[in-house]
Amino acid sequence: MAGYRKLGRTSDQRNAMLRSLATALINNGRIRTTETRAKEVRKIVEPLITLAVKEKDNFEEVTVTAKVARKDKDGKRIKEVVDGKKVTVYDEIQKTIKKDTASRLAARRKMLSVLYPVTQIPEESAGKKRNTQKVDLPAKLFDEIAPKYVDRKGGYTRIVKIGPRKGDGAMEVFIELV
Questions:
Q1: Most Cβ neighbours (<10 Å): which of 52, 73, 76, 170?
Q2: Residues whose CB is less than 8 angstroms from the CB of residue 96 and which lie 6 or more positions away in sequence, other chains included
Q3: Which domains does the chain have, with CATH numbers?
Q4: Are 90 and 67 in contact (CB under 8 A)?
Q5: 32 phi and psi, to 5 degrees?
Q6: Which phi and psi angles does 170 have, rounded to 5°?
Q7: Mind listing the pLDDT tens digit for each residue in 98-117?
Q8: Predicted local confidence at residue 34, as pLDDT
Q9: Which of 117, 120, 144 is nearest to 131 (CA)?
C-alpha cells in the first residue's frame, strides 16, 4: 500500500499543488478543496504546526543599534550638503529584535522549504503593485498559530464535508485550523 495518494498528477505537479494548498491553509486558516487533497494537506500542515509549537519560545531578545534615515512630513528622506555633495541624514535608534537559536532557525528553514512566499495586497490599493507586503509565514506559525495549540497533542486541522462538487461529483470539504 502506498504512503500517499497520487491525485492523478506527476510527482512535481502533486508536490507543487500540495505546497500551495498548505501555504493557503496557513495563510488563511481555512480553504475549500476535495476530500482526498485535504487529507494529503493535513499530512503536511500538522508536522509544521508541531514544529512551531516545539520551537515557539526558542529565541533570545537582543538590543541592537540601527541607522534609520530621517524623513520629512511627506515621507521623503532629508538630505544636507556636506563637502559639496547631498548626503542623507541618519539617526541612530535602539531596536530589540528576536534572535533565533540554532534549532528554531532549522525549524524556520524547514518551514520555508515547504511553504511558498506570500505577498499581501492591502484592500485600499487593490490592483496596484505599490504597498504590497511579504507575509512571513514561519513568523505567523511561531507567533500566532503555535500559542493556540500549546496544550494540544496533535489534531490541529478539521475537515468538514460540504457535499459533492457539481461538475464531477467529487466530495468537497473545508479544511481549517481548529
A1: 52
A2: 61, 62, 63, 64
A3: 11-58+101-177 (3.90.1030.10), 59-100 (no CATH)
A4: yes
A5: -110, 125
A6: -70, 140
A7: 899 999 999 999 999 999 99
A8: 96
A9: 120
Q: Residue 56 CA to chain centroid, in angstroms? A: 15
Hunting for cell 507543487 — which residue is that?
16
**Contact status, residue 142 vs residue 56, Cβ threshold 8 Å:** yes
Q: Residue 96: which H helix or E strand, with range?
A: strand 90-100
Give me the mean pLDDT over the 16-36 stretch: 96
Residue 128 phi, psi (nearest 5)? -115, 150
Q: What pTM was computed for the model?
A: 0.82
Is residue 129's pLDDT more than 80?
no
Q: What is the pLDDT of residue 126?
A: 66
Rounded CA separation 94/37 (Å): 47
Residue 6, pLDDT above cutoff 60: yes
Do 39 and 5 form a contact (C-beta atoms < 8 A)? yes
Rounded to the nearest integer, the mean pLDDT of the chain is 91
**In this structure, how many other beta carbons lie within 10 angstroms of the beta carbon of residue 63?**
8
Q: How many residues does the chain have?
A: 178
Q: Does residue 92 or residue 82 have the better pLDDT? A: 92
Grid cell at residue 173: 470539504
